[in-house]
Amino acid sequence: MIGIVDCDNFYASCERVFNPSLRGKPVVVLSNNDGCIIARSNEAKALGIKMGTPFYQAKDILQKNGVATFSSNYNLYGDMSRRVMSLLLELTPGITQYSIDECFVDFSGVSCLEALAKDIVKKVTQGTGIPITIGIAKTKTLAKVASKYGKKYKGYHGVCIIDTEEKRVKALKGLEVGSIWGIGRRNAEKLREKGFLSALDLTLKSEAWVRRELTVTGVRTWMELNSKNAINIDELPQKKSITSSRSFSSQGLNTKDALEEAIANFAAIATSKLRKQHSCCKAITVFAHTSRFIVDKPFVALNKSASFPVATSNLSEIVSLATRILSLGYREGFFYKKAGVILWDICDENAVEGDLFDSVDRPRLQRLSKAIDKLNLNLGRDVIHMAVQGKDNGFHLKSDYISKQYTTNINDILQIKT
After folding, report:
1. CB atoms within 10 A of CB 332
2. How confident is residue 79, by pLDDT bands cut at 50, 70 and 90?
3. Predicted confidence (pLDDT) per residue in 251-282, tens digit
4. CA 94 centroid distance within chain
5. Buried b vs exposed e over 266-300: b needs ≥16 C-beta within 10 Å?
6. Does residue 394 carry a pLDDT above 60?
7. Looking at 77-207, which runs of residues are DSSP E strands?
8. Beta strand 2-7 pairing with 301-312
9. Residue 272 C-alpha from the chain's centroid
10. What single DSSP character describes residue 48?
11. What is the pLDDT at residue 365?
12. Which residues carry out catalysis?
């Protein structure tokens, strides 16, 4: 049996951990630059507040209903995720993290499964303050289905198990095709047009039909819904490119040092994602541009690429090349409104081709990178980082409603007065 552990309304839950007065009240979290709503508590969902709604459009309903509004606090969310995953490692046979707030657990051979899962829910919630739901079934896709029901109905007490054919059929019959994990928006629309109402309708089609209409990826989903394991997280296709970018608040950045710090951080974020999927990149693109909407000033854009002599995932190499590219193309006297880094020409870390004339001690760099990864995992995100990244790491984003960094900034630690 396979389980998926999912943190409930994760960003909103993180905000509630250190502010108990928010419990039972509607909470929303905004995207970068306070652009749109990217997380909602159940109470906010009940008000009809939609995911992705631009903040300026939702301001009236938020104020009218007393909704607590927060800017994204990624330092807090990243550290709370680390705490949840660390505790799950102690309580389960082992985990495979899928996202910041989800991980898969292999429960094969575990007896008293429901009792164990409920104990995990209790201990993680008590230990971190983050409520979780565990969905368990024979495949990852069915476990995701179980998780949806576990979140929707309080009677499950955070644990939903699909362990019989009767439960599988009942669960899929009540699941709309667009809610199937991995089916995608376009395929969901195609299925609706063909008269499919539920996930069960899809499972009743033949494999040949699914392969013709939904390709190989659809077949894997179809097999998983029919209780046949077909998806291995470690074998999912790697991203062809990885991008980290931001739009800056106010006018933008008008000094080289400020833009260099931002580019260094974008490169570091992209490198972290690259390492998590056990890949290396052979090329990098750095871009930055001024606003297109300032009519009395010329539009200035930087977009330059460079390649590495040997494919790499080393932080110092990638950040150094990114900042060097910026230096070659930076123009003084302009306010840069957006910038970013793209890592591309990606390959598996085990398929890197060496270079006879490479002067870099790559085994040593690899050991150093692993040591840094381990320290950052244990002590908190970016505890060890390159000096050029600066101390703030906030990229000068608009964040008018940001909460404190309760777990990663000693100046923000909660104080108890007696």
Report:
1. 7
2. confident
3. 788 899 999 999 999 999 899 888 888 888 88
4. 20
5. bbbbbbbebbebebbbbbbbbbbbbbeeeeeeeeb
6. no
7. 95-99, 102-106, 132-137, 159-161
8. unpaired
9. 12
10. T
11. 76
12. 102
Secondary structure letter of residue 17 according to DSSP: H
The most distant pair of C-alpha atoms in the chain lies apart, rounded to whole Å, by 71
Inter-residue contact 199 to 172 (CB < 8 Å): yes
Torsion of CA 380, 386, 391, 397, to 10 degrees: -90
The residue assigned the tokens 């039909």 is 209
Exposure of 157 by Cβ count < 10 A (0-12 exposed, 13-18 middle, 19+ buried)?
middle
The three-state secondary structure class of 110 is coil
- 8 Å CB contact between 342 and 284: yes
Which of residues 18 and 390 earns the better pLDDT score? Answer: 18
Q: Are 179 and 148 in contact (CB under 8 A)?
A: yes
Say if residues 133 and 158 touch (Cβ distance below 8 Å): yes
From CA 27, how far away is CA 8, in angstroms rounded?
A: 13
Q: Which helix (H) or strand (E) holds 365?
A: helix 362-379
Please state, as a whole number, how many other Cβ atoms lie within 10 Å of the Cβ of residue 174.
15
Quick check: 303 and 251 in contact, CB under 8 A?
no
Strand partners, 69: 28
Of residues 130, 137, 207, 219, the one with CA closest to residue 182: 219
Identify the band that residue 355 occupies on the pLDDT scale cut at 50, 70 and 90. Answer: low
CA–CA distances in Å: residue 64 to residues 15, 26, 38, 366: 21, 12, 20, 54
pLDDT score at 115: 94
- Two structure tokens written together for 325: 């590219």
Calculate the alpha carbon distances from 151 to 26, 80, 283, 409 in Å: 17, 20, 42, 32
Token pair recorded at residue 224: 């998983």
Read off the pLDDT of residues 144-185 as tens digits, 9 standing for 90 and up.
Answer: 999 999 999 989 999 999 999 999 999 999 999 999 988 888
